[in-house]
Design brief:
Keywords: Aminotransferase, Pyridoxal phosphate, Transferase. By secondary structure, this protein is an alpha/beta fold. The protein contains 10 helices and 11 strands. The chain has 2 domains: about 15-250, Type I PLP-dependent aspartate aminotransferase-like (Major domain) (Aspartate Aminotransferase, domain 2); about 250-295, no CATH class. Bound molecules: pyridoxal-5'-phosphate.
């Protein structure tokens, strides 16, 4: 049997829109002689925090590190026990699990009912855990009731926002400003994608922001004082500049993704394909349009 494939995502035309501006960033950074940190990184962190309406943004090397650093920081601050059990939806990308393991913690997978973790699943579980990492999978924000459940039970939630840049919840709160801390990936295929690896943490908690910044930068507070076990995971200035070029178009790109998703709902008619409930369309950055198919997918 032969199959014809529609390419998953053609990055070339998307990135061609920024080629001229990207070359200008490259030239400026090349000429500046400053290749770690600096104005481009600070500028993007400030702009992205403002965009997410969060108080702080800390650039990292990628999304996996962003989530790992959040969890390591909470342990360093004494907000999570060293052997904390972290509830995590079984349906996610492997990075969510790896971040918990790399932080020395124990992932406790929980099955979801319709792709994403819901309060009704949490209410039913009898497993014990210390905190939850939720995932805005496919761009769909985790429902407000999950956060309300955690709040009522005095449990912290960290969000893997790798796929939900720009989504807004029912109360008008942006992705990156909902959980105690959020971890973004700017992997090239993301809604806001760099042209290499890049990531960021957003939070409104000052002591957590400070610890994340420290751990991401060799555990160092000042030049010669490294007093926590750190890593080297800093946002590259070139990627920060490329992301600055792309951020102004994120909302209109997300609108276009939503238009396309709506048209799939109207026009996709195939008895072997089941669409998610149209509720899936709300509070969603529409990173991916998932469908259920009758048989396994063919590679
Ligand atoms: C849900 C999810 N979490 C985490 C990551 C990790 O991001 P990165 O590849 O930037 O490390 C990704 C993307 O790759 C992702 O889709």
């Amino acid at each position: 049997m032969t199959h014809s494939y529609i390419p998953y995502l053609d990055l070339k035309p998307l990135n061609d829109r920024f080629k001229k501006q990207d070359l200008a960033v490259f030239e400026q950074i090349h000429d500046s002689g400053r290749f770690i940190g600096g104005d481009w990184v600070k500028g993007f962190e400030d702009r992205f925090a403002e965009y997410c309406e969060a108080s702080y943004c800390i650039g990292t090397g990628n999304g996996l590190d962003a989530l790992t650093i959040i969890l390591k920081s909470e342990v360093a601050l004494g907000n999570l026990p060293k052997d904390a059990k972290i509830l995590v939806p079984a349906h996610t990308y492997i990075a969510t699990f790896l971040s918990i393991i790399h932080a020395g913690l124990k992932p406790i997978p929980i099955d979801v009912e319709e792709l994403i973790l819901t309060a009704s699943v949490l209410e039913k579980t009898t497993i014990s855990y210390d905190a939850i990492v939720v995932v805005d999978i496919y761009g769909k924000l985790v429902e407000d009731e999950v956060y309300a459940f955690a709040k009522a039970n005095n449990i912290n939630i960290y969000c893997d926002t790798a796929q939900s840049h720009g989504a807004t919840n029912n109360s008008g709160i942006k992705s990156g400003n909902i959980a105690r801390a959020s971890a973004f990936s700017f992997y090239p295929t993301k809604n806001l994608g760099a042209i290499g690896d890049a990531g960021a943490i957003t939070t409104n908690v000052l002591e957590l922001a400070n610890m994340c910044r420290k751990i991401a930068n060799y555990g160092r507070e000042s030049r010669f004082l490294n007093d926590v076990l750190g890593v080297n995971s800093r946002l590259d200035p070139l990627q920060a500049g490329f992301l600055m070029n792309r951020l102004p178009l994120l909302d209109s790109d997300n609108d276009r993704r939503n238009e396309i998703a709506n048209s799939y709902y109207k026009n996709l008619k195939n008895e072997k394909v089941r669409l998610l409930d149209t509720d899936f369309l709300s509070n969603n950055a529409m990173h991916v349009f998932p469908v259920y198919v009758e048989n396994r997918r063919v590679f």
